[in-house]
Amino acid sequence: MPDSALGLVKTEFRGLTVERYDSVADLAALERRPVRLLLVEQEAAELEADLGLPALDAVAAHTLALSYRDEALAARFLERALMREDSARIGFLPVNLQLDCWLSTLRLLLLGHPSVPQSLFRRLHRPRPAADGGDTAEAALPLTRRERQVLELASLGKQNKLIAADLSLSEHTVKLHMHNIIRKMGATNRTEAVSRFLAARHACASA
Fold it and tell me: Where does the HTH luxR-type domain start and stop, copy by copy (predicted)?
């Protein structure tokens, strides 16, 4: 993080201890310290095997986020993150946001609410033909056919209004379906439900 950005963070979030480390290896100093947010710059992630995730496990950070410019790299980072049990704690911070949006996203990360830009989900989305017998990631989920349709469209980054139009439903009905999807999948929010859906699809594609 540039000195200017670091200074801005210290000014905006007074009382917050902010430290910068030049390499992932230097994070060993944080091994036994509680960390609210570990923000990894794209350049550091590129240097680590598996895009940095194994090397970062030693740090007990409540939230882990990738600060990125290259969306293709961020999508690969997300793909690996979705294969982890703790994927719900991993978020993303694009550096090309307007300043107020950048600070708002950073504030959410600090509060333990990681976000994933829908554009990254769309990069991962790869429609696949059903396997023999219909044994697909979607079929394995404990969802009704309509709920699977809603989740499929949500994974494309579509909001409820567009999903409702595509399926000829009311927006209220889509909200109810999404509520049921989140509950049935044991997720805490829409983003986590989509993450689990894409992780299941990736697992089937890799099998």
Answer: 136-201
